[in-house]
């Protein structure tokens, strides 16, 4: 059987191209789109109210696996998207660790911020929009006030992440 002869289930179709969805997201309107762009304008959605449709993606992946003998390749699992709530939680945790001058915990949390930023550009944007830059600046200031020489490692780590956050908001 040829790949062209395989019927893609209609629920897995991307309605514009009539191809297989690879990264389905659902908006608060209930409409499911493929990836993070509008199918009509090709512009990126500005709202972070997108919900990754994991159930649909898993069903599509299962269908791909079942049909691999026909040349269908399994779609990859998308990268982790950070949501504002997670940014808020890490801000609270990093500020608490900075107040205690807990360099180890701060390095761990800055490492997590770095990892999120390396995953996908949208994560950097979400973190910047949710004020992580101002918090990192405050953490930097806490450690420099105490002893810049003693806390060089964390200061360097923060400096590697801060450029992602520019321009900082006025309150930062």
Automatic annotation (TrEMBL):
- In what pathway does it function? Protein modification; protein ubiquitination
Query: InterPro entries from the entry?
Result: PUB22/23/24-like, Ubox_domain, Znf_RING/FYVE/PHD
Entry function:
Functions as an E3 ubiquitin ligase.
Organism of origin is: Malus domestica
Q: Report the residue ranges that make up the U-box domain in this protein.
A: 34-70
Q: Name the enzyme group at the top EC level.
A: transferase
Which Pfam families does the entry mention? U-box
Q: Does the keyword Secreted apply?
A: no
Recorded catalytic activity of this chain's protein: S-ubiquitinyl-[E2 ubiquitin-conjugating enzyme]-L-cysteine + [acceptor protein]-L-lysine = [E2 ubiquitin-conjugating enzyme]-L-cysteine + N(6)-ubiquitinyl-[acceptor protein]-L-lysine
Q: Residues of the signal sequence?
A: 1-28
User: Which GO MF terms does the UniProt record name?
Assistant: ubiquitin protein ligase activity
Key words of the record: Signal, Transferase, Ubl conjugation pathway
Annotated GO biological process: protein ubiquitination
Query: What's the name of the protein?
Result: U-box domain-containing protein
């Amino acid at each position: 059987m040829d790949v062209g002869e395989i019927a893609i289930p209609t629920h897995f179709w991307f309605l514009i191209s009539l191809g297989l969805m690879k990264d389905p997201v659902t908006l608060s309107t209930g409409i499911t789109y493929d990836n993070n762009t509008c199918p009509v304008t090709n512009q990126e959605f500005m709202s972070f109210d997108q919900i990754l449709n994991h159930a649909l993606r898993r069903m599509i992946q299962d269908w791909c696996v079942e049909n691999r003998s026909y040349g269908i390749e399994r779609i990859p699992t998308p990268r982790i998207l950070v949501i504002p709530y997670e940014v808020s939680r890490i801000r609270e945790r990093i500020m608490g660790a900075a107040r205690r001058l807990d360099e180890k915990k701060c390095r761990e949390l800055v490492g997590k911020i770095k990892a999120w930023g390396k995953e996908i550009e949208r994560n950097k944007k979400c973190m910047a929009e949710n004020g992580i830059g101002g918090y990192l600046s405050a953490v930097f200031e806490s450690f420099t006030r105490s002893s810049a020489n003693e806390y060089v490692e964390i200061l360097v780590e923060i400096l590697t992440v801060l450029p992602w956050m520019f321009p900082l908001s006025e309150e930062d």
